Amino acid sequence: MLRALILASVLALPASAEVYLTREEALKLAFPNASARAERQTSFSEAERAASGLPALLHWWRFEREGELLGYACIDDVLGKQQPITFLLATDPALKIRSIEILAYRESHGGEVRRADWRAQFAGKDPDSPLRIGRDVKNIAGATISCRNLTNGVRVRLDALRRAVASDTSRASSVPASAGVAGATRRCQLLMGTTLSITLDAVGDARSDACLQASFDEVRRLESLYSDWEPASELSLLNRCGACAVGPELEQLLGLALEVSAQSQGAFDASVGPLVLLWREARRTGVQPQSQACRNAAALIGWKAVELDREQHRARLARPGMALDLGGIGKGYALDRAAAILRARGFPRALLDFGGQLLALDAPAGRAGWPVEVRDPRGGSAPWFELELRGGSLSTTSDDQQSLEVGGRRFSHVLDPRSGAPVAGRLAACVIASEAARADAWSTALYVPGAETGLPLAERANLAARVLEGDGTAHESSSWQQRLRERP
Questions:
Q1: 17 domain-assigned
Q2: Are 91 and 73 in contact, with CB atoms under 8 Å apart?
Q3: How far is the C-alpha of 350 from the C-alpha of 360, rounded, in Å?
Q4: Mean pLDDT over residues 242-249, rounded?
Q5: CATH classification of the domain holding 461
Q6: Is 305 helix (H, G, I), strand (E, B) or coil?
Q7: Which site from 278, 312, 345, 348 is most exposed, i.e. has the minimal number of CB atoms within 10 Å?
């Protein structure tokens, strides 16, 4: 990562290096009209770094003009072929990229990434943009490594900046709702390794602030119960011991997970834990797991071997070495619990966005629903589809942003519990359901087998669903188009 000393002396750089901008010059170039700025440093845990490739520390700034937020910037290094490239990433208040600047380039070749036309391609991109080299960002012949690594560096730092801004408590975060509802109050916090944003169609005051904080606190409490990153969580205890008493939240969550597992014929399976751990280590080391190791992990998977005794409030993993992973349903469950607090405290007109999964309660005043656009995983500026969402949750499973790169190969982050391998040949699966937990689990359950096998199962479960196969063909359940057309 960048340190201030990197730019302090050109003598410390390789003979072929060029320094184009000092840190101060780059910051002033990014926000020439700023009247004030605040400097920040945000650190990320080992678990966050392993899961999302985040840097250990992000050095970033917040810019204002006469009290109005102008945007954010961060400066960091990304490895070129052998030497680091120092760059600045500047965004507007909504975290859409304003500009990319190259401060120092240290390689003998590939310096074309400093070209204004190449850097201009990033303008307008946001943390949800996939930023794929060759598709969203053009490559430059002779500078392939620099283009690829800088593009990946921008994508990762943009995600890190989003998390840093969400976790910054030095100032309240209240901005117009991303769903386009004027006068709404929005708050966001970093939870479960991503950003939870809650938008209320209500005036921001002490009462709404207290309700929002109670919702965030509930999600944080649930994370402490069923996160496998937390050694003291109930889920970690169950994975270690193989059998233990479970509290009401974990019991309810496991019961729903087992229900979806049965309905999806094992396409969704919370006992995929051994396989998740295997590929998590592969992400960390950059070494692809051996085929035998994948087979051994897959042999431990099987939802039917997860025993839940609701009378005794106990759970048991019948196979030694089994482990549960609730990543495919946990966020949705947390959304449902947070939404229950909003309703109970008198704020029923709300939209919750948890890392891309949406849960809409009642519609904003004077509207049929919360306007939602879903980005096309194939790229391009046009949305894949639009709808007005009310009284339901939309969950999308796609690997265009969360794919694994191991040993120079790209793999889906979604693992097939039946084969033990990453899913291939699928672009996205979307599900709309009344419960966020059910939508969360079912989007994975459809993504794994694809349209031919998965959609009949979704029909049986009375779900509105859409699957985008790898060849770009979209397949829908019978209720999908009706769900898009209807205006509640």
A1: yes
A2: yes
A3: 6
A4: 96
A5: 3.10.520.10
A6: helix
A7: 312
